Automatic annotation (TrEMBL):
Name the record gives this protein: Cytochrome oxidase maturation protein, cbb3-type
UniProt entry keywords in alphabetical sequence: Membrane, Transmembrane, Transmembrane helix
InterPro entries named in the record: Cyt_oxidase_maturation_cbb3
Annotated region (Disordered), positions in chain: 42-83
Stretches that traverse the bilayer: 6-26
Domain of life of the source: Bacteria
Amino acid sequence: MSILYLLIPLSLILLSLAIWAFFWAVKNDQFEDLEGPAYRILFDEDENDRPREQQGQGEPANDDETGRSAGKTASDDDPEPPR
């Protein structure tokens, strides 16, 4: 029975922490765009996924049906083989 003197205040503290976290998330627009991330996964490449040096630049032209850009070889895409 004496454990209730510890558990009740502890549960009230956790409840108040959860309520504070919810209102913080609403205030900081965490729930503004609920559908965007679900559709964003369908796109191949997002502008924000690129390195900062390449952001804002257009896509390089693809010359062949494999999707590789001009001047690249297969060995340019492959990492060094393990030893």
